[in-house]
């Protein structure tokens, strides 16, 4: 196999290999008569990424007929370590290289990458040792699903910008006229986690062909990888799937190449886990003279409070006011439960009495003593004390302090 990649296409193959490196640690090469495929799998085998470069992608694509036999199904296969391939495709190769040539012989244990640079006529040859020969069969075609969606990469990028970078999974609720995207958390709900929901209408997609309404949950990392690659070359992203629990395909097409990722999914409803959860927070006390709302915890604390104990930062000896405070709080409880009799149970004078006792009588226990004065401030006052002394003394005005230097010997009046 001998194929030559022109300089203008080296950026495409470089970005494609970098995208594959985000998925798996091994890269499978399959050379056929009219195309070259690069495939990888992640460790858990839940994501499969494949780049297919057609014959028109190369300036020269040649495969020897004696290497294509019936035993290997008319395909040349080999496997490489991703760490050995990735360093060759770093940087802006389209500006540096004149062409890239890939050579492979079935009888050899090496794959050869020849890079011809534009400047100084440098030709670099990289020999990469092959791994054990292995054939990878996926068994899933990119267009096997009954639901098809096609959207621009900018639209999907705007949707992802609504989610946090810490989100690992996304849930898509697909209906006939719209799609609802939510972030997904496994297990119990955490109030500190932000729940996001984005609604997209069918008119925002180039193709919106939904024959089966479903809910699909999958990982966000493959979607971020696809969007990053698609925005570089201004490609549209297609989604093909059947339903939750079956594979979902993210597809990008170009006249000379196509890239797709097959991602495993699940249906959250069948797993017994809800995609959305609501948490109830305790209501806060609002200090409003017209509407007094008190939580149940505060009411119980006020009723069980021992007002006879000494307070650390102040003493309250007026027992009548304390008992009055408790009785007013009990009236507030009946006021919130029986709104029809609110004028009889609690009046404006009682409410004002509550706030007057709270503010004027220092019932609040959270009293923090003042901090002592800083010694540095005392030192500054001592050093600059002369600056604050008066510079003019009124009793000395009108008196002769020193004689005049002129000959008239006039006095200062």
From TrEMBL:
GO cellular component: nucleus
Listed InterPro entries: DNA_clamp_sf, Rad9/Ddc1
Signal sequence, start to end: none
UniProt-listed Pfam families: Rad9
Source taxon at top rank: Eukaryota
Entries under PANTHER family matching the protein: CELL CYCLE CHECKPOINT CONTROL PROTEIN, DNA REPAIR PROTEIN RAD9
Name of the protein described by the UniProt record: Uncharacterized protein
Organism: Cryptolaemus montrouzieri
């Amino acid at each position: 196999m001998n194929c030559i990649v022109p300089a203008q296409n080296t950026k495409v193959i470089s970005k494609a290999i970098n995208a594959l490196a985000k998925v798996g640690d091994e890269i499978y090469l399959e050379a056929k008569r009219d195309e070259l495929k690069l495939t990888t799998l992640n460790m858990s085998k839940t994501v499969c990424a494949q780049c297919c470069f057609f014959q028109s992608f190369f300036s020269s694509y040649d495969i020897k007929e004696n290497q294509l036999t019936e035993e290997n199904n008319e395909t040349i296969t080999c496997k490489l370590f991703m760490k050995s391939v990735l360093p060759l495709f770093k940087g802006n190769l389209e500006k540096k290289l004149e062409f890239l040539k890939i050579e492979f012989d079935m009888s050899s244990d090496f794959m050869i990458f020849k890079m011809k640079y534009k400047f100084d006529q440098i030709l670099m040859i990289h020999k990469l040792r092959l791994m054990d020969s292995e054939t990878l069969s996926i068994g899933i075609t990119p267009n096997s699903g009954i639901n098809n969606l096609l959207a621009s990469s900018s639209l999907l990028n705007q949707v992802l910008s609504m989610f946090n970078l810490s989100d690992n999974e996304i849930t898509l609720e697909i209906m006939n006229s719209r799609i609802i995207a939510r972030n997904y958390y496994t297990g119990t709900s955490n109030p500190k986690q932000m729940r996001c929901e984005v609604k997209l209408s069918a008119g925002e997609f180039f193709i919106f062909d939904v024959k089966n309404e479903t809910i699909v949950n999958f990982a966000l990392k493959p979607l971020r990888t696809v969007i990053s690659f698609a925005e570089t070359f201004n490609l549209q992203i297609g989604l093909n799937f059947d339903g939750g629990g079956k594979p979902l395909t993210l597809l990008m097409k170009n006249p000379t190449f196509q890239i797709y990722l097959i991602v495993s999914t699940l249906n959250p409803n069948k797993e017994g886990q809800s995609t959305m959860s609501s948490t109830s927070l305790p209501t806060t006390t609002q200090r409003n003279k017209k509407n007094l709302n008190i939580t149940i915890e505060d009411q119980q604390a006020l009723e069980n409070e021992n007002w006879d104990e000494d307070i650390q930062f102040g003493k309250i000896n007026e027992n009548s006011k304390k008992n009055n405070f408790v009785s007013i709080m009990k009236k507030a409880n009946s006021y919130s439960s029986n709104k029809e009799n609110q004028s009889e149970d609690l009046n404006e004078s009682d409410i004002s009495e509550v706030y007057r006792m709270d503010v004027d009588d220092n019932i609040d226990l959270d009293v923090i003593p003042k901090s002592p004065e800083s010694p540095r401030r005392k030192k500054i006052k001592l050093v600059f004390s002369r600056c604050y002394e008066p510079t003019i003394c009124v009793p000395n005005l009108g008196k002769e302090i020193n004689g005049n230097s002129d000959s008239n010997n006039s006095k200062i009046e």
